[in-house]
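Following up on my earlier thread - several people asked me to post the actual chain instead of describing it. Fair enough. Here it is, all 129 residues.
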Amino acid sequence: MTTQMIGYPVFGYWHFFKDEDSGDLMTDKKVFSKEQGGYGPPLNWYKCEIANLNVPDEAKVAKEDYYLKVPSLLVKCKYDPLGVPAVQEMGMKPWFEEEFLTVVEIESGHWCLLEKPRETNEALERFFE
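Reply from S.P.:
Thanks for posting it. Predicted structure:
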């Protein structure tokens, strides 16, 4: 479906991310340096998804609880070719009543917390005020 929408398979990179050494191969000298934690920790989410580690817990959630009825924040990353902002927002909106979802956009790539920590934290502060 994403290939038809944006021209490439958005989740194709997951297969690379699941490899143990993928974090070492991707390490950037500034943002994702080993001293900053590297890519290893952020890649654990993908490894869990690919291995279906969350499926047993997710199966326990009642269908009526799929919909979030609490204030929630969607942080879109403007230059994210993986989590395409328009696709992310389209995927989130059905699970919320409009009053509960706040959407902000950060001018960053996929990992805004690592790439634009100040801007991301400011968005979080505004949301929690």
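The longest strand covers residues 72-77. That should answer part of your original question.
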